[in-house]
Task: inverse folding
């Protein structure tokens, strides 16, 4: 069978897609990038916020049309939306042949070959109505999840996996699930409790990836700095970084999704000492107003965050800081937003993402009134991003003339004679890029490192030329 995969959502979901592709290939199936040419279509969905759910529904319906009119014989839906609405999806979109939740990844081969009946067990979570592309409501249902049925699956180094990223970088999921109860987040109910992979399994996978040509390893989980704590192994992340630093072939090791209350000095010391570990910390803080942090059920305070950020910069010189914030959470006032903008101005973050609050059933925040109008949420997001853009532009302009090392990702979509690359302080897909001009593109391959001089700044991005 020819299998086509559409993967939506975050890198953690992408790893699940890569594992399913690897299992399908091991099972003797062929893979295709052309959905119209697929015998079986697999949609790996996201259900974190309403916008992601709508994208998932639209994609499922688009693939259902291909099944009715084209070559496709089977449609399989997997991932977070499948975990959340498994029975409702099957009932309301009859073209779906199988539904696999987040803990049923190994069942993909059965779903491709058999399908009917796979994923029937489990329970959905009530949520707001979604819309079909024509505006017709798609009502997901109204049942409460059974905590005893939370997923427990996590892949290991022996699990087949087919990379969907460029061959020079790969995501490695070091843990699955989450133990926190943030008021706005449904993920613990969809992914289960936090469970760390054994360090040896991660190291075996890292060595295998390096042998395949991977230069950059991106460590991911719901809370990467919590790694090992669930097993009573304090200091496990720092030890893992040092062990990964010794893996031949790897050049960059990057951590994503750290948590403000679990970043220990041992991790910062390992970052500073290990030459392959990028001086880059992705630290979703969500807000800076103490009132909002408390309502969001986030640990820490503005004052604790101030101390943490100062400690990070002191322990890891030259570190790049990335964070995300939520605006429009129930009860947020203009005073809270002013505290947030002041915090951003004080700490000069290198990368900032801002989301507008999504009122999700199944979360504790759903019991609160969604009292910030959508227009106000959008205006607040624009205000925060406008501030960040101005701060970054000034710092980027000051870098003109610097000589730096970049990792070449490949040709730019803007022009055939321009290449796109990244600094060690820039993660793929989510951060800005370095555009390499005044060069022969054929002289550089994806995955090459290049010494360049920064010649211009363009909003968030930098423009550079090779150092001759």
Result:
């Amino acid at each position: 069978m020819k299998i086509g995969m559409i993967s939506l959502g975050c890198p953690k979901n992408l790893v699940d897609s890569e594992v399913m592709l690897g299992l399908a290939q091991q099972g003797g199936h062929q893979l295709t990038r052309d959905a119209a040419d697929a015998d079986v279509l697999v949609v790996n969905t996201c259900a974190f916020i309403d916008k992601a759910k709508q994208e998932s529904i639209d994609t499922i319906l688009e693939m259902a049309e291909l099944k009715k009119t084209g070559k496709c014989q089977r449609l399989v839906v997997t991932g977070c939306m499948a975990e959340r609405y498994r029975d409702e999806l099957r009932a309301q979109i009859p073209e779906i042949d199988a539904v696999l939740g987040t803990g049923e990844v190994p069942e993909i081969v059965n779903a491709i070959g058999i399908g009917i009946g796979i994923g029937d067990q489990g329970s959905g979570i009530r949520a707001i109505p979604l819309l079909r592309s024509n505006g017709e409501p798609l009502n997901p249902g109204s049942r409460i999840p059974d905590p005893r049925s939370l997923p427990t699956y996590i892949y290991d180094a022996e699990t087949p996996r087919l990379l969907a990223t460029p061959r020079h970088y790969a995501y490695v999921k070091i843990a699955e699930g989450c133990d926190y109860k943030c008021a706005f987040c449904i993920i613990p109910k969809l992914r289960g409790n936090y469970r760390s992979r054994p360090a040896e399994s991660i190291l075996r996978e890292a060595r295998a990836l390096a042998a395949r040509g991977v230069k950059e390893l991106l460590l991911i989980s719901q809370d990467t700095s919590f790694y090992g704590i669930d097993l009573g192994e304090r200091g496990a992340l720092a030890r893992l970084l040092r062990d990964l630093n010794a893996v031949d072939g790897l050049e960059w090791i990057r951590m994503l999704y750290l948590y403000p209350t679990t970043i220990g000095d041992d991790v910062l010391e390992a970052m500073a000492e290990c030459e392959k570990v990028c001086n880059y910390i992705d630290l979703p803080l969500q807000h800076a107003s103490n009132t909002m942090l408390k309502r969001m059920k986030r640990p820490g305070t503005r004052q604790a965050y101030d101390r943490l950020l100062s400690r990070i910069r002191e322990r890891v010189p030259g570190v790049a800081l990335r964070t995300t914030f939520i605006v429009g959470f129930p009860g947020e006032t203009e005073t809270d937003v002013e505290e947030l903008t002041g915090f951003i101005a004080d700490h000069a973050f290198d990368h900032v993402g801002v989301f507008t609050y999504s009122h999700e059933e199944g979360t504790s925040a759903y019991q609160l009134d969604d009292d910030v109008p959508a227009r106000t949420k959008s205006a607040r997001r624009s205000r925060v991003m406008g501030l960040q853009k101005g701060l970054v532009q000034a710092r980027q302009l000051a870098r003109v003339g610097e000589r730096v090392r970049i990792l070449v990702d490949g040709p730019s979509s803007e022009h055939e004679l321009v290449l796109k690359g990244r600094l060690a302080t820039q993660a793929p897909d989510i951060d800005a890029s370095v555009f390499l001009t005044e060069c022969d593109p054929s002289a550089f391959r994806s995955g090459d490192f290049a010494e360049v001089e920064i010649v211009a700044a363009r909003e968030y991005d930098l423009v550079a030329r090779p150092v001759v």
